[in-house]
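DM from R.C. (forwarded with permission)

"hey, sorry to bug you on a friday — could you get me a structure for this? deadline for the figure draft is monday and I only need the backbone to look sensible"
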Amino acid sequence: MEKNYPLQLLSTWRIGGPAEAVYWPETVEDLSSVWRRAQEAEIPVRLIGRGSNVLFPDEGLPGITLVTTSLRGISWGDHEVRVEAGYTLARLAQEAGERGWSGLEFARGIPGSVGGAIMMNAGAHGDEMASCILSITALWADGSIKKLERTDFEFAYRFCSLRGQAWVLEAQLKFSPGERDRILQAMKENLTKRTANQPLEEPNAGSVFRNPPGDSAGRLIEAAGWKGKCIGGAKVSEKHANFIVNTGKAMSKDVLALIEAIVLDVQLKYGITLQTEVESILTGNRGVKAKEDIEEHKSIR
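My reply, with the result:
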C-alpha cells in the first residue's frame, strides 16, 4: 500500500492531488477483504480501474483507493472468455481478433480496463460492450460478491444500471466466429481513424460529453466556438472538440470550469443540455462521492 500517492499517476488526464492510501489488490478475495475492513472501520474507500474516464480532485482523496489493474486473470473458452476487471480492454480485443473471434473490433483503441468499460457501457464505431456480455461478477457496497446474468442488469447509451451500486470484478464475454484477417483489418482501420481524429498525443480522458440524440457533442461544441479555448491548463482540443486536454499544468477546477462554461453556452445557443460522460470524484464532509449525471440527466451548473 502506498501512502500520499499522486492521483495524477492513476489518471490519463494526469490530474489529481495525493491519495491518502492506494492499494493494488492482486486477487478478488484480497480486494473484497480490504473493502469490508475499510467499511467496518468507516474509512472512505473507492474502486478505480485505469483512470481513463475519471477526474480526480486537486485536494486529493482521503481513505483508501483500490486500483484493479493487477486483477488480470483470463481464461479462454469456446468463443467465450472469462476475464478479470483490470485486464486492458484494447489488449483483450486484439487477442480475440488474433483468434478470429469477432465482437470487440470497436474496442481496439479504447484505453480503459474491462471493468470500467462495462460500467460505462463503452463503445465506438456503432457498437458497445453490452453486445458481448454473458454475465458479470460484482462487488457490492457491503463487500459481498455476487454473480449476475446478463438479464439481471440493464444497459443504455454509456450507461449500466449497476453504476453507483456495484463494481465489476470479472466478466464472461461471448464472441462470434469470424475471418481473422478481416477482423484485424477492421481493428487497424479503427485505430487509424482514432489517431487521425483524436488528440492521443496529449493527456485526456476521452470524450467528455455524451452525444445528444441525433447529434454530435463535438459538432455542437465546435459550432459554439470552443475549439482551442482554455481555462487554466485545460483546453478544448483543436483536433476534436469533445476532448478536453491537459496542456501541462491543468487542475481539476480548470476542467470543471471549462465543462460548466461549455454546457451553459451550448444550452443558450442551441437549447441542448450536454451530459457528461466522464466521472468526477469529489470530496465532501462525509467522505467521497461520485458526481454523476447519468441517471438524473442533469447538467453541471
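R.C.: lifesaver. The first strand starts at residue 2 and ends at 6.
me: no worries. The longest helix spans residues 252-270.
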